[in-house]
User: What shape does this take?
Amino acid sequence: MQDAAVATSTSERAGVRLSENLRVIGRNLFPFLVVAVIWEIIARLEVFSRRLFPTLEEIFSSLYRLTVAGILPMHAFETVLRLLSGFAIAAVIGVTIGVLMARSRRAEDIFLPLVSILAPIPGLAYAPLFLLWFGLGNFPAVLLVGFVSMFPIIFNSWTGVKAVKEIWVRSAQAMGADDKRLFRYVILPGALPYILTGMRLGLAQAWRVLVAVEMLAAVPWGLGWLIFGAREMLNTDVMMAGILLIAVIGLLLEKLVFEKIERYTVVRWGMITA
Amino acid sequence: MPLIEVKDVSLAYDTPAGRVQGVLGATFNMEESEFLCLVGPSGCGKSTLLNIIAGFLTPTGGEILIGGKKVSGHGMDRGVVFQDFAQLFPWRTALGNVAFGLEMKGIGKEEREEIALQQLKLVKLEKFANSYPHHLSGGMQQRVAIARALAYNPAVLLMDEPFAALDAMTRDDMQRLLADVWKTTGKTIIYVTHNVAEAVYLADRVIVMTPHPGTVKAEIPITLPRPRDPLSVEFLDHQKQLLNYLGQGTSKAA
Ligand SMILES: Nc1ncnc2c1ncn2[C@@H]1O[C@H](COP(=O)(O)OP(=O)(O)OP(=O)(O)O)[C@@H](O)[C@H]1O
Ligand SMILES: [Mg+2]
Assistant: This one.
């Protein structure tokens, strides 16, 4: 009897949670629905030529066709590979420089002026330079992505380490932590909320510059290349498919990688609220 | 020979506005297993003195000897509990926090967690061993901090107003708990407070400091039997006496 009552209330609660989730999804989808309807109207009215402004049906059928043919996944794979290689370089070097700047006056004096001047320059402005120095292809593309996405990581690591509470440092020192372990067990986790924010911003930077540089560096595969290549052929539906895929991958990285890491660390520790 | 000798210790802070005296010529001795309270008005230099003893600040005059050896820098012979709840590491559970000092000492995982759990039992928090600090109340966090400072078994425990930010009722509980912990462990404790009743409840001896720039004004032994009754006449007499030294006594008492 009692068991039955409990079972009902759990399934009821699950039902409530489900409808709650559906409502959230609905709320998030609504603006996209509006844009899609407007898009479709413009396309059907042929304000632009059908070639330049395809209907949703054409876009999604291209998306489907290219995916099944394995072309889109191949482009996406190449792009993500470049993105992650560049980003990995940026993360390692960025965190190192940021931490150095925060820990050593000398390093701060050297790097801060440089970083302050180089950071605000749009990433793409560096592209010609990198292409001249390192030729065409993957190498300059990855390097540029790494270089550009390094700056937000540097700034945030620097701030994060400076924001580590003196009282944590003193507590750890009183308990016998030497410099190395102080760094590993106190400074790094203490600065983690900022470091993660820096990486998030860095990844966004990386995306922006990568898609453009893929065209300039004349790499044979990649979503950026796909989009710019499609322009030559007036394949607007292919362009749109590429753009959609970029959005989806970006969203997945954000939701599946960063939010997971945050939930497992700084949110669980109460250092930031979810 | 006393365990701790504080000899004519002074410290001046360099600030943009000029030199500010933190403490001025403080001198006192301390025996092993003694519970010493440091009281004085706000800004007189209690925290400064405690931080010098902890080794976080270097005195500009005088010296401190512990067990006959001159203090220079922090060391594992002293455990520190601060006033700020935020002293715990948010990324470690209560148990992980308490085990930190043992980990730094190189003690293996199993052994240090066992010791840490014992320490948590001492402050009645064994049930919360796996909770992160942000899920604990202020009083619980301060108890974890005490367990953490005791866990690696330092000879001296230095406490800077650890309960000042708690509500009065919780503070009473904490004081009782600390008195128990002290009785069980026999630690040498220096405890900073500006709460006179707290000092009379806890201390074997109270060091009263003058207003800024602080120095030692008086040393008052408190020999009341323990556990002490804060409502007894003798207790209130001691309290009055301390307040007089601090210049806060009522005109009737003066
Ligand atoms: N970091 C600092 N820089 C400059 N002056 C300081 C610093 N810390 C403390 N002082 C000065 O030294 C004096 C003693 O300060 P201290 O913090 O030791 O006082 P306290 O007795 O602990 O006071 P409270 O009871 O309010 O905590 C004060 O006059 C204060 O202005
Ligand atoms: Mg103080």
